[in-house]
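Hello again, I could really use a second opinion on something today. My current little project is about how a certain protein chain folds up. You're getting the sequence in one-letter code plus the fold written as tokens. Here's the protein in full, and shout if anything looks odd to you:
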Amino acid sequence: MSKDKKYYIIDRQMLSNSVQGVIKVNDLVQHEYLTKNEAIKKIGISKSTYYKYKDYIRPFFEDEKVRVFNIHILLEDRLGILSKIFDIIAEAEMNVLTINQNIPIEGVSDSTISLENTSDSLRKIEVMLEKINSIKGVRELRVLGGNGFTS
């Protein structure tokens, strides 16, 4: 493994159509149990594109060992917004380990929350993040990292 390797967290929307196609193929293979060739055909990318990128793409929460991770949230100063976030976290069976929230400046505050995944379902993390991100007043949500992530 090269020491020059660097890893980034990037929003899927920023990826090329080819890379997004590879992600979709991998999802079909893993969740719908299609063969790689069937999934490639269904998505409509070339085999050469798939095999060019397949070893470089994997979900952020791929590893079952993910237990503790941090999220950063940019919040509008709205009554009860943090309470809604904590309700979603509890519904997903996560424990809040730490929270750091700055006072609002110009109606917006930063919050960093360390969470512990108490479930074996990593999909719950993804659903939780989607629900938090959909709350009115959440301007930005980023996963900062955590334990169990492999390179």
In short: The chain has two domains: 12-56, 68-146. Residues 68-146 form a domain with the Alpha-Beta Plaits fold (CATH 3.30.70.260). The first strand starts at residue 68 and ends at 76. Helices lie at 17-31, 36-43, 47-53, 81-91, 122-133.
